[in-house]
């Protein structure tokens, strides 16, 4: 049986490869058993803990005193013991930090949510603007460690909650519409609260939620659903599917005044600030929108407003490539099919 390698480094080709020096491997073995007994062990990814006998030590230039990273599968990259944010290796981290990505709905996700809800006589397609749990899981995996708490104040039918199930995180969501709340309960056992996020502080206290490690959500894009194009409305009406989230006044999607919408939305995110851990992240997925021939830079205006409390750290642009396009403006004026969203990334800093 080949000897187990305890030590890895970066080769010239920038691939993680085993180090063959016997003395270095002996020293690495000692260092690994110290790590096993230290407090740091608790904080490492579950997959590493569960396969500890296969884990090796890593340093890019093979300086053993400085080696503070672990390797499970060399092709997946190395995990730094000092990783404060997530359970990703450097390679997985790098893949996520590109400033844009293309993502379209995944059929397996749609099938899964349909199957679960249909059994109970409900229809997940009723919600007019849902996201994929696969996409949510990517964000959750970057901004949290296993076991941490993720909060979505605009839960919808629970894509964030299913993302938490898939990644081993604790989910908490608030949803106004009772039907979407019921659909979520069919999909997940995470904590979902029926109510308005304008009362977020009260609702979280009542449900004994004291701390949030990360929040990700997509609010209604102002009153955009009230102005959906004929096609969208016709197709959905034919199938008796919802065209709006609700007709309630407290539904954020029914606030017609732009400034009022921005203020009330910001107020919801400001309430989250008090529950978010220091240095915790808040991601808001939103679009710039058009109304009455005018462009409203909703994403940018919200970014500026939330900057009163949070630090705007970055943006990640989400592009959809499989949305049907319409000849808007033809043949008179330039106007786009908006098929990109801003994932605004804020942090609670001192
Ligand atoms: C863009 S959708 C979120 C969809 C969700 N990400 C999903 O994948 O299912 C916005 C949601 O906010 C909900 N909503 C609107 N006003 C609300 C309020 N005041 N409090 C809580 N939820 C609200 C709507 O009912 C809708 O489900």
Brief synopsis:
This protein has 350 residues and is of the alpha/beta class. It has helices at 22-37, 46-50, 90-96, 107-118, 133-143, 159-167, 178-187, 200-206, 230-238, 258-273, 298-306, and strands spanning 7-10, 16-18, 56-58, 69-71, 78-80, 100-102, 149-152, 170-175, 191-194, 212-217, 276-286, 289-291, 294-296, 311-319, 340-347.
Description:
Helix 5 packs across helix 6 (159-167) and helix 10 crosses helix 11 (298-306). This protein has 11 helices and 15 strands. Helices cover 32% and strands 21% of the residues.
Features:
single chain, 350 residues, alpha/beta, five-stranded mixed β-sheet, 15 strands, 32% helix, elongated, binds S-adenosylmethionine
**Heteromolecules bound:** S-adenosylmethionine
Biggest sheet character: 8 strands, mixed
Low-confidence stretches: none
Number of strands: 15
Classify the beta-strand content into a percent band: 15-25%
Instruction: Report the mean per-residue pLDDT as an integer.
Output: 93
Helix and strand pattern: EEHHEEEHEHHEHEHEHEHHEEEHEE
SS element count, helices: 11
Strand order of the largest sheet: 6-14-15-11-10-7-8-9
Helical proportion?
25-40%
Secondary-structure class:
alpha/beta
Cα(first) to Cα(last) distance is 54 Å
Rough shape? Answer: elongated
Tell me the radius of gyration.
Answer: 23 Å
